[in-house]
Amino acid sequence: MKFTIGWLKEHLDTKYKDNKIIEKLTDVGLEVESFENINSELDSFKVAKIINSEQHPNADRLRVCDVDIGEKNTVKVVCGAPNAKKRSFNSLRWSRLNNTKKIK
What letter would DSSP give residue 72? Predict the structure, then answer.
């Protein structure tokens, strides 16, 4: 049987972490075959608000956007999406280059 840990926590009065819940289920004879934490797969995604969007000076199909990703300062993102408009919300996937700059 498959179910989410969130569903299980709705039916249990517990503040245990996920691994402790799995351990307790095993202790009472309910074998947990596998556990997948999908949150770690989503860590590189951020919801961002486009503050400003302008045509890229050197490319017809690109836009330069000032983006609020919930940090202190806005960041500049070069985007090829035609729907990248001012005041719109988008999901962005980020990664790091040399632990100093974020790239999409």
Answer: S
Tell me the two tokens of residue 91.
């999901």
What are the tens digits of pLDDT across the range 67-97?
A: 888 888 888 888 888 888 887 777 766 554 4
> Residues with Cβ < 8 Å from 71, sequence gap 6 or more?
none
Task: Give the residue from 52, 53, 47 showing the smallest Cα distance to 89.
Answer: 47
Q: Which residues pair with 79 in a beta bridge?
A: 63
Residue 9 lies in a domain: yes
In a domain, 18, yes or no: yes
Do both 28 and 52 map to the same domain? no
Distance CA 85, CA 104 (A): 18
The domain containing residue 23 runs over which residues? Answer: 5-40
The reply to whether 77 and 55 lie within a common domain is yes
Using the Cα atoms of residue 72, residue 74, residue 77 and residue 83 in order, give the sign of their dihedral.
Answer: positive
